[in-house]
């Protein structure tokens, strides 16, 4: 058996306890090739729940006949696990065993990026599932991750025998609802695959079941499930980009300076970054498919109709090439989606600039209108200024228009008025000239003293 209750011994096998409230310990004897012990599974970061899950079992000999179990409560799981329906590696040749775990149904609340940590089982049931399904301990870090998309491949081996395995972990970004996590353990010696998929919706469970029933001989390829996850993620990302395009087209220029528009621009920028990250993971996935075809499935290259192992490996090479080509096509589609996001951001930036330009033009028109009004006021002032001066001049007491005898006369002190007026006018004009040409314009600006600033 690959997993059995035990404690740490001299060989370095590490057991883990799920929680103080759980009875017993569980051990996983998979170790990294670097001979580093697994850290205890951090079950304390996970939450318990009870949701419907589906278990699927398929074999290479009859891929169309898939066994299916729908389980929900802990009692149902305990009864099912007690029947020993999960085959051991030595007894499971060329087959797939996968658990599709449904996400907690909580649509009434807003999206919670930590919701994937809410398991559809109790911690004790999950610990036993991890043990029976030979799932690597890194699944915990995969569940707790999600800030960025990830796809990893790790070669591991058991300490009890020389059988090695390959662990594939895949995680989609949790920036939007519908993120998923997956851990796949593939044993090349028996060509058996054990996998667990977390965060499934009811629709995705049915869709994955339907796709697996039509997968044919590719059912035994270890990267079939990651490829199906890519298909589901493509649908989710396609909706995000279409929503962004619709919102961008519905925006008017005057709406681009609002806080809502800024948030939408930042949201599209986030989508672009996440799509770019996911595209890199797709290329890593395609490289892993090539790696499998060049290593594990290339040990017997020619197709020998008598040698069933040769036929199987050649078939896996062909299926891997098909899966790789599909992944690369999807990666090309993501390049188009990234360009769409960039186009949305550029169009929103251009619309914002046009809105600002339109506002500046309106300000300039208002300023021009105000200038025209001031010009009109100046013209009117010039028209009435001579008459105002004449009326003010003749209203002064220097003139006597109705003397008691004789004709109207002017005072001999009239010259004082002209002298004072002309002098004040010359002084005012001179001060204005000096201020404009020598003080206000030509006065050099004082450079900042950085030495004084550094001593503060």
Please give a handful of descriptors for the protein shown.
single chain, 456 residues, alpha+beta, 2 domains, eight-stranded mixed β-sheet, two-stranded antiparallel sheet, 9 helices, 12 strands, rod-shaped, disordered N terminus, transmembrane helix, CorA metal ion transporter, transmembrane, membrane
Question: What does this entry look like structurally?
Answer:
The protein has 456 residues and is of the alpha+beta class. The chain has 2 domains: 1-219, no CATH class; 223-369. The protein has 9 helices and 12 strands. α5 packs antiparallel against α6 (259-294), α5 (224-250) packs parallel to α7 and α6 (259-294) packs antiparallel against α7 (308-394). The longest helix is centred in the C-terminal third of the chain and has 87 residues, at 308-394. The protein is rod-shaped and about 150 Å long. It starts with 14 loop residues before the first strand and ends with a helix. Keywords: Membrane, Transmembrane, Transmembrane helix. This is CorA metal ion transporter. It comes from Coniochaeta pulveracea.
Q: Short summary of the structure?
A:
Keywords: Membrane, Transmembrane, Transmembrane helix. With 456 residues, the chain is an alpha+beta fold.
């Amino acid at each position: 058996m690959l997993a059995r209750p035990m404690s740490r011994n001299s060989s370095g096998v590490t057991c883990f306890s799920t929680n103080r409230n759980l009875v017993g310990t569980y051990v996983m004897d998979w170790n990294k090739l670097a001979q580093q012990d697994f850290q205890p599974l951090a079950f304390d970061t996970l939450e318990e729940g009870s949701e419907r899950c589906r278990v699927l079992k398929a074999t290479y000999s009859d891929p169309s006949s898939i066994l299916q179990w729908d389980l929900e409560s802990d009692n149902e799981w305990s009864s099912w696990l007690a029947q020993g329906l999960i085959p051991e590696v030595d007894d499971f040749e060329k087959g797939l065993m996968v658990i599709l775990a449904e996400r907690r149904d909580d649509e009434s609340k807003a999206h919670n990026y930590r919701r994937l940590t809410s398991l559809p089982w109790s911690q004790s049931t999950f610990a036993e599932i991890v043990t029976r399904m030979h799932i690597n301990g890194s699944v915990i870090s995969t569940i707790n991750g999600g800030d960025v998309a990830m796809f990893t491949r790790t070669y591991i081996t058991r300490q009890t025998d020389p059988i090695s395995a390959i662990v594939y972990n895949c995680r989609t970004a949790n920036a939007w609802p519908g993120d998923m996590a997956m851990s796949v353990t593939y044993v090349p010696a028996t060509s058996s695959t054990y996998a667990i998929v977390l965060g499934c919706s009811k629709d995705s469970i049915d869709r994955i079941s339907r796709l697996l029933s039509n997968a044919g001989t590719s059912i035994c390829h270890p990267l079939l499930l990651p490829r199906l996850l890519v298909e589901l993620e493509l649908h989710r990302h396609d909706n995000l980009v279409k929503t962004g395009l619709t919102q961008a087209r519905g925006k008017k220029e005057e709406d681009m300076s609002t806080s809502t528009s800024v948030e939408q621009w930042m949201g599209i920028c986030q989508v672009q970054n996440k799509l770019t990250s996911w595209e890199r993971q797709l290329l890593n996935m395609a490289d892993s498919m090539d790696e499998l075809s060049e290593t594990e499935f290339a040990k017997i290259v020619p197709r020998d109709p008598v040698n069933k192992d040769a036929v199987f490996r050649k078939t896996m090479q062909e299926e891997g090439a098909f899966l790789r080509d599909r992944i690369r096509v999807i990666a090309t589609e993501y390049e188009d989606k990234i360009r769409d996001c960039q186009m949305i951001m550029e169009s929103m930036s251009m619309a914002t600039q046009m809105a600002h330009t339109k506002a500046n033009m309106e300000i300039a028109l208002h300023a021009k209108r105000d200038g025209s009004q001031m010009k009109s006021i100046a013209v009117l002032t010039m028209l009435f200024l001579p008459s105002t001066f004449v009326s003010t001049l003749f209203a002064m007491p220097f003139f006597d228009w109705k003397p008691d005898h004789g004709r109207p006369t002017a005072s001999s002190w009239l010259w004082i008025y002209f002298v004072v007026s002309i002098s004040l006018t010359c002084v005012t004009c001179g001060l204005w000239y000096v201020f404009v040409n020598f003080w206000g314009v030509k006065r050099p600006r004082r450079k900042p003293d950085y030495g004084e600033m550094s001593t503060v």
